[in-house]
Structure of Multicopper oxidase:
Amino acid sequence: MAIIFALLSLYISYASASANPFTLDLTWESGSPDGGPARDLIKINGQFTGPLLEVNQGEWVEMLVLNNMPFNTTVHAHGIDQINTPWADGVPGLSQRHIQPGESYTYKWKAEQYGSYFYHAHSQSQIDDGCYGPILIKPADTVTKPFSKISPDEVSLLEDAEVNVRPFLVSDWRHTTSQETWDIEVASGIETSICMDSILVNGKGYDDCWPRAQLTEFTPAGFVPVLQQLGLELSVKGCLPPPVIAGSFPNATIHLENIPPEVFDVCTPTTGSRETIKAPKDAKWLALDIIHSASLLAFAFSIDEHPIWVYAADGQYIEPMKVDALQLFNGDRYSILIELNKPADYYGIRLTSIAAAQLIDTIAYLEYNDCTPYATNYTNDTYPILTSTPSITRAGGPVSEDVVFLDTSKISAFPNPYPQDTPSIDQTIIMSLGMVNHTYIWSLSKTPLNNHAIENIDPPLLYTAPSAHPHQTDADTTITTQNNTWIDLVFTSSNTPPQPPHPIHKHSNKAFIIGQGTGLWNWTTVAEAQAALPQNFNTVDPPYRDGFLVPGADVAPTWLVARYRVVNPGAFLLHCHIQSHLNGGMAMVVLDGVDEWPGAY
Ligand SMILES: *[C@@H]1O[C@H](CO)[C@@H](O)[C@H](O)[C@H]1NC(C)=O
Ligand SMILES: *[C@@H]1O[C@H](CO)[C@@H](O)[C@H](O)[C@H]1NC(C)=O
Ligand SMILES: *[C@@H]1O[C@H](CO)[C@@H](O)[C@H](O)[C@H]1NC(C)=O
Ligand SMILES: *[C@@H]1O[C@H](CO)[C@@H](O)[C@H](O)[C@H]1NC(C)=O
Ligand SMILES: *[C@@H]1O[C@H](CO)[C@@H](O)[C@H](O)[C@H]1NC(C)=O
Ligand SMILES: *[C@@H]1O[C@H](CO)[C@@H](O)[C@H](O)[C@H]1NC(C)=O
Ligand SMILES: *[C@@H]1O[C@H](CO)[C@@H](O)[C@H](O)[C@H]1NC(C)=O
Ligand SMILES: [Cu+2]
């Protein structure tokens, strides 16, 4: 009887994985998504990557997470605003205690928004271990859609394509676990996590070791002098070699001998597996939800010979924009439509690293359904030899002046949600992003937030009176707001030493990205800056997103302003979504609406 019951409950938990309420059974198993050396990774319901969670806007969503792994975990629904459900945000130490091995936790939240989201582990660097999967919230009938602006005569075809939208989950992969990666950083004293082994699309990929001639051809010009001076070249994986990384902090204690050779200097090509997106037969349009769930890399994305209509960003509809290529940063979602008006064939979907520290790329395929018999040749019957023409180079740049990249500063949310009456701003938080003493220690505002210590705050911040928060008075690591106020978040990056682009993710509700620029931020309020540089601001129809890309600061400092209204009291995280930066401390705690704190305080 007991055995029958156990089997039955097992059956139910797996069977329910595709319908709300969802069960996510997390296990720690050996695997090799790119055909490289096997390592332990996180599977969800026995699969990698995690299953698609598909729900309707307005539904209550339940995710029962079973931790069948040998370490603590939590799961965060990325971009979900968690209105009135701050305890379901999945950040250990802030909104819950860890889910310990053998334990479970039920996340329950209302799908107020529509569009493309994803879930991922928020403990330590478990994103590196593959704990992620897509969320799709189907819009309610009442939502106004922007499709007539793409092709007024084909609105129903475009709507059909959207109904059949499929996830295109982009990630990156290392042959070391997240714990091994962190241990190597601490032991060596440098950020070794910059060197990945492969790029994955929907969990599929292969190890591609570039010929030396291509590594040389595409070595970023800015690195050539320092490489020459040290008598070095990019590593066989296309990575900036450790001595160059160490050069940023000459006074730090460095032990390069503690870096195992396979982290930078061993590359073995694999066949792996490759993703093919097969368009439905006779479809005129195809919709994809591109989800950037990678730990570290940023990418250029394009589809050979096919312009891309971007119709949503971070789940939110936008005024559609027609481009040839996009840049993707950690946590980004873009929903795109592609017109299938070329001859039946295979077309390359290109993803190339635009992270300065590594040259690496991958290819997936777009296949028109009636492409049989194959017009294209196969190598060993595993993947087609492409004859289509790429729009981007192996380093992610345009192949010609005609190639148009998405300009994210020109995105306008649709319909425009920005308030008609200029909000009066209650607080301006000015942050200064950077590294602190080591290449692997980072801060959002001068002081690193010790992520490892924060995760085990007990009771979690949400369950404590705000006045008792241990960090409330620390302005470098904590933002404290009153409910129903407007906040300007000013992110500034210095170029000494140079800063990479930082994709900042805000938990809970989205913010308007109202301005960005190059040069020193030298104002105390955004109004002063806007008066001095009106051309750098949009307070009419700005992007409305849960991720804000602070531009890289190379030759000059940079800044970005995100404006939001506090509507959802709770303890939330604001952090860089590059996992090694978060792990190194690039985060702040946001105590939103302390005057209306949930619970009996
Ligand atoms: C796991 O979580 C529990 C409960 O929050 C905590 O007491 C313990 O220290 C955590 N273990 C680690 C290794 O963080
Ligand atoms: C390194 O240490 C020396 C001597 O203490 C100091 O003069 C120098 O400014 C330091 N350099 C950096 C980059 O911190
Ligand atoms: C496939 O490749 C072979 C050998 O390179 C070539 O002879 C043949 O024409 C190719 N077929 C097609 C359909 O391109
Ligand atoms: C098939 O794969 C093997 C091993 O990767 C390789 O040596 C061989 O050249 C491939 N054959 C063709 C026709 O590409
Ligand atoms: C960075 O180094 C300075 C000088 O040694 C020290 O005062 C400071 O505490 C260090 N900061 C961190 C976060 O380690
Ligand atoms: C900042 O602005 C003030 C007032 O406009 C000006 O006096 C000062 O020189 C500026 N500082 C920098 C570093 O640009
Ligand atoms: C916080 O403010 C928002 C916006 O005015 C309001 O909708 C919400 O009900 C408030 N929350 C609480 C708990 O008072
Ligand atoms: Cu960052």
Remarks:
- The chain has four domains: 2-139, 178-200+208-264, 276-410, 427-596.
- The longest strand covers residues 22-31.
- The CA atoms of residues 18 and 53 lie 6 Å apart.
- Residues 483-484, 567, 569, 593, 596 surround 2-acetamido-2-deoxy-beta-D-glucopyranose (ligand 7) (CB under 6 Å).
